[in-house]
Amino acid sequence: MKRLLACLLVSLVVFAAGCRSRVTEVEPSESFRKAMDEVMKRQPPANQVKPGDLEARKEPVILRLSLSDALDLAALHNRGIMFSQLAVELSRTDTMRSKSNLDITVGATLGYARSEGELTQVFPGDTRTKNITGTTTYGLNARLPFATGTTVDLDASFRRVDSNSPFSAFEFFPSTKLTLTQHLLNGVGLVPNLSNTWIAEGNERIAELNLAATRNAQAYAVAVAYWDLVEAREDFKVLQRQAELAEESLRLAENRAAAGLGTRLDVLAQQSNLATLKRSLIQAEYLVEQRTDELLRAIHPDLLVGYTLFANYRVVIETTTQVQADPAAAMEPSLINELKGALRKRPEIAAARKGIENAGLAITRDEYGLLPTLDLSGDFTVNGVGATANDSFESYTDFTNLDYGFALTFGVPLQNRAARAGLDSSVVRKRQAILDAREAETDVIMEVAAAVRGINSAKRGVAAAQEARDFADAAHKAEVERNKAGLATAFEVKQALNDLTAAERDLIRSRIESEKARLALLKATGELGQ
Fold it and tell me: I need a labelling partner for 439 at 20 to 30 A (CA). Which of 142, 240, 405, 515 fits?
């Protein structure tokens, strides 16, 4: 008892010490290292950074990424895609499990039994004091189920009986029994025995289609995050250029005031405009950083772990894919043609159809459960007996000791509520599957229609924004010249600059929206993430 208490005390001390110990993260986690090393393979040598160098690094990590790079990284590391891949793997294990009803089972038996008892009858010359019998059994067995509802059982055994009885003439008993069982009503045929496997394979196909749908949706989400970052960066550049123009206007106003050609009010107006632009620059810089993190999360979320590991860790993504003047200009989508392609290609539609097929299989399977049971079973047994092992096997191979017969077993569940409820449930699920398919088709139609309208709207939007920007630029240049000639006030120059800034930012947004509209149509027709 003292030794046991001592062991318990030592265990408690070790457990408490383990609970108090803290894990200090001095080095980056393994996932972060792998993520950083993998991304750096895509970078030029000047931008490459090792995880071990980040502890003392003050400069941000610069990643030059094209849209193609972002999509490639997301295809491997996006969490949404990874979850869908795990769902496919789980569905495959369900398919394997569904085939277990047809697994062949083999086994072996080894046993010994001994009985001792008082003699109930004593014959002249019998010197025994008790009756002793020892039985040693060796056996092999196998069960072979078939998809037709047939089961074959094979049982081979060999017994040796040692007895002190003078009337025991035989000692060895080989035996082989073959039993055949066939369902004739409930459980007969391929449907009751393979339907679960067919349904599981259908669910596996649905999981694969869901993975394709996830890839399509995530590719669109990554592309949108990429263009959101491009928009934020371009917007920031526009504000920087406008801030430089505002500084020039301020210097001009100050020079004119010093020469007596302007007023202090003109200088104050330009100072106010410059301060407003600086405020907009701060907001734009914040938006760039926020959208950088959003893109990192979409393409390789393990890179965000660096924020918890290094005080000066920061990532700057330099987008290399340029915004086209009007990416949707060359597209002339036809709503009917795009809808036909989407209904043919979208994995959500195929998954919904497979769901209806699975529901129909479940109904057919559950209809068998309403049938009564009628089973035919037959067995054939070959036995052997002998005083010696050789004699017993000779008797066994002579087929002189045979047992055989058959039986019909019939059963009717009086209420059978489980089977009736299962069938009703399957019928309801098929109705749900049909509604799901109709809803999926409606969603695709609405998405394609919205994408086609979005492209048509984006085309007109880019043209209008470009025209507005050109007019604003011409107006600003004219006001600057008029101001130099003393014909315009500083306020008018400032207002023209603000109009130009707004027009350039709107042009950037319209071009990005055109890119997104093109991607939205590709996503709606199921052509992304392939």
Answer: 515
